[in-house]
């Protein structure tokens, strides 16, 4: 293997493939987003680094036409980049939502961004608020709605393939996951609540920390929603702690119900799950988290998913996973500062 091109100097937080699969965007705690050419996935090449955020860059997303890249950061800003130059077209600023506790301050800022399938809307998870922006003209974005319903940071946003539903995930025990009808973007309607972990009152009283949904992904047909779940606790005055996670599958054919059908991830002891992604054909689900391994599940029977592959190579937590549009490659990024490309069939990886 040839020496890898220079990548991130700190942890990698987010990944996204362009719609044509020729570009991969990564972002990290080094305050940069990097564009990679992956036209030849065996030999990825760094194109450029996008600098403009004043703190860690936590999320990246391509517009459906591949012309715009959105980046969200700990500086509470979303930058819209034209990929023709590349140049920053607009800055979307998000206000601080009042007082933030210590645990929330650590995740303050924009943690998630997602374009609607038609490219007209951009959803941003910022602190305790979800913002919907009209980005029909990327140089002149207009805020359509700002919904503040959470006691903790919003960590995940994602649109259904038909654009009518928006899923959100947060560090909030009562509003961990929410399905929204965004047919009228100016007035989102709450449809149902998804709660992957239910705590007893005794557990809640004794342990600090909170359950969360760290990432969301709709299946290509829109019938399933995958969530990356986590829960942790620290016993007051004892120093004792625990962490657990799961990747949950929810049947969202009736958005008002949101029924969990399966939890294919290991339970206690595996750490929090931080990222999930469906393959383009919907037959596989990839997830990863604090346990460092990537798990690929076969969804032939979504009620009883089976582990098809376990991919090892990262040294530490994996914060992002993404399938290429043709489904042949899986990208992963983590706290070891590397981005890896895995040949899905063979499980072989290369490092950038």
TrEMBL record:
The keyword Electron transport does not apply. InterPro entries: WD40, WD40/YVTN_repeat-like_dom_sf, WD40_PAC1, WD40_repeat_CS, WD40_repeat_dom_sf, WD40_rpt. WD repeats lie at residues 5-46, 50-91, 103-136, 311-352. Signal peptide: none annotated. Keywords: Repeat, WD repeat. SUPFAM superfamilies: WD40 repeat-like. Coiled coil: none annotated. The keyword Repeat applies. PANTHER family: TRANSCRIPTION INITIATION FACTOR TFIID (PTHR19879), TRANSCRIPTION INITIATION FACTOR TFIID SUBUNIT 5 (PTHR19879:SF9). This is WD40 repeat protein. It comes from Actinoplanes digitatis.
